[in-house]
Amino acid sequence: MVLRPIKLRDQRAWREVNRRNRDWLRPWEATIPPPAAGAPFAQRPTYRQMVRHLRAEANAGRMLPFVIEYQGRLVGQLTVAGITWGSMCSGHVGYWVDREVAGRGVMPTAVALATDHCFRTVGLHRMEVCIRPENAPSRRVVEKLGFREEGLRPRYLHIDGAWRDHLVYALTAEEVPDGLLARWRRARQSHHGNTGNTGK
């Protein structure tokens, strides 16, 4: 599995995966709320507009946009956004993955890789993941990794056409001194050993 920066040339593969998973992803994807009176109407960006925006935010130190590759093909996207420096040194993670590879450990591995990069290379101290309470698969991702549930943020993000509540999960660098990926690998090995090494 590879986590790497998103590129303009990923457009064909990204659009194919996103299109094929449209119905599966729609209940969990951010949407643009109706504009306030007098504000310009905001359309969903094209792929090129999205990548240019992500790159600009990355260059400004506010975002880390990645795609996820599994067995040589693009299967999802992970973005560390809202990066704040100063006395906070924090960011939050958002992600989606192809339904065909869900449940294989791809997304927990991607989140672990991104978190280790942010803690060890970028210099962040705290990582957050905000998830709709109804999104059980996404909650399992962070629970497997040992993120702490910290509480509910009412009407936190505009998702699927309405303002939705989100649960906040968080992790700080001190909680994973040996790295989150190493902890995740140990947990998987322990689980496989307890299930007779079936690989499930």
UniProtKB/TrEMBL annotation:
Keywords: Acyltransferase, Transferase. Residues 1-174 form the N-acetyltransferase domain. Pfam families: Acetyltransf_3. Gene3D superfamilies: 3.40.630.30. Coiled coil: none annotated. InterPro entries: Acyl_CoA_acyltransferase, GNAT_dom, N-acetyltransferase. Belongs to the acetyltransferase family. RimJ subfamily. This is N-acetyltransferase GCN5. The lineage of its organism: Bacteria, Bacillati, Actinomycetota, Actinomycetes, Kitasatosporales.
